[in-house]
Request: fold
Amino acid sequence: SARPRPVPRPDRPARLPLSYAQRRLWFVDALEGPGASYNIPLVLRPAAPLDADVLARALTDLSDRHEVLRTRYRSVDGEPHQEVLTGVRPPLDVRTVPAARLPEAVAGAAGHVFDLAEDTPLRAALLSPGDDGPHGDGQVLVLLVHHIAADGWSTGPLLADLTTAYRARAEGRAPGWEPLPVQYADYTLWQRDLTDGPAARDHLEFWEETLAGAPPVLELPAARPRPAEATHR
Reply:
């Protein structure tokens, strides 16, 4: 039979589970400590100067539209859960920096370290070189999303939604988009329903039997020896 698709869940539990991909990232963050290894920075040069106030409203619209961008990840007795917030305004750092230090400022914005338990996973920086103020030429917009909330593919729709919201707010109106049919939290509940069923248990038993006795580490030929600790290079 066809696999059921995710649908909105009006009966969401008080503590929303993480998807398995999110759980892996949460575990790495808890094990290694917070870091910037799983940041997804988007560094953009706008074709025309951006208005910081309009951009701030557009970022809020984006956060309102996508629950996963206003979610933090708490744990109780070592078990993580999603906490979807409302009324979130993503941080926007607006600065003028000397042109020679612009690459350093971009790197600093892209290297922000998220606290997954406290921070929401979206922030931005609008950087202007020289002394022209925040509306000068040569602006750089740094959008930063943590990988727990996005991946390479999803940055396309996020940028499209941000562009739509910015254009609408620049015209003095709210973006006229249709509500999303499902949110990421609905997907995580669907995934749990799917993987907790008997078919998933059959698959798990099959692979446990098939991979019994497999080496814990697959040593492939490499240009240099494997380091004792991960360097993420």
